[in-house]
Amino acid sequence: MIASLFNKSRPINYILISLLLVLFYFLYQTRDFSWTQNIYTVGQKLVLLSVLIVSMFLVRFITKRNGLSKDNSYAAFLFFIFLVLFPTTLVNINVILANFFLLLAMRRLVSMQSMITPKEKIFDASLWIFVAALFHFWSILFLILVFISIIFHVSGDYRNWLIPFIAFFSVAVLFALAVLIIDRSFLDFVTDQVRISFDFTYFENVFQNIALAFFSSVAVLFFATQLISLPNRPLNMQSSYKKIIFTFLLGVAIYVLSAEKNNSFLMFTFFPLSVLGTNFLESQENKWVKESVLGGLVIISLIIFFGQL
Question: Which residues are registered as beta bridge partners of 258?
Fold first, then answer.
């Protein structure tokens, strides 16, 4: 059974998930073979696949390293399932790259609970968030999480509040040099994203509509149950779980605000929802509940995925 298979954190589990990700990634690419005619686009597809696989391992690393879950591989598997549920994510270059840099930022922010080199972590996280914003502007909302982390851990030192602005200056200088030396279109690319749209009538087919409705239901289940159980978490871990909850809310905000909206923008919620979903599964003593939840996720995701090929 699925829950039993991923109940432990074994190397074979991550190899299996990685192989499944490769399979479904290329299955979705079969909708259009024009990319195979150019070595540049073939290389681009391979790079994006590599970024997705590394992103999945980052989800696993952040979750396990910071004690956000027990010793299992649910988080990585849920991240993969969400990608299958929204296959348009697999071809959205900007979202994939922006989400990758945000995961690098989250790696630093969640680990701030150790209180080891907090200033370096604040700078690194801020830097990655500003880099992510170059690919999808509204990723900059995650800067709110930097200041939340400062409040949680190191608000007493005024210098910590200035570090994000130093990171902004660093990225701005490098970006300005790239615009002047390499290509001025970089500036148009970024400024074009600084728009807001509340138009949710973007669905290309009924499967995308169903996927969003199903995902919303699952998200509410995972989010609500873990929000209620938050007071029962160990005191030394509550700040980390609060960051995950804020991360989910910020991911939803990015989706709501983004112009030229589509389901792929929900990728910014995949990491926090994978953690919340893992915690939900771990809290279920009845193994058939775990099997039913994971089984339902897998079946519906597969139906929606193949329905869009």
Answer: 196
Q: pTM for this structure?
A: 0.93
In order, the DSSP letters of 92-143 are: -HHHHHHHHHHHHHHHHHHGGGG-SSHHHHHHHHHHHHHHHHHHSGGGGGGH
Q: Which of 89, 96, 93, 87 is nearest to 306 (CA)?
A: 87
Residue 189 has pLDDT above 70, yes or no: no
Helix axes of 11-29 and 39-65: crossing angle, nearest 10 degrees: 150
pLDDT band at 187 (very low <50, low <70, confident <90, very high): low
CA-to-CA dists, residue 241 to 53, 61, 188, 217, 274, angstroms: 24, 16, 37, 21, 13
* Residue 194: Cβ within 10 Å count: 11
Distance CA 95, CA 266 (A): 9
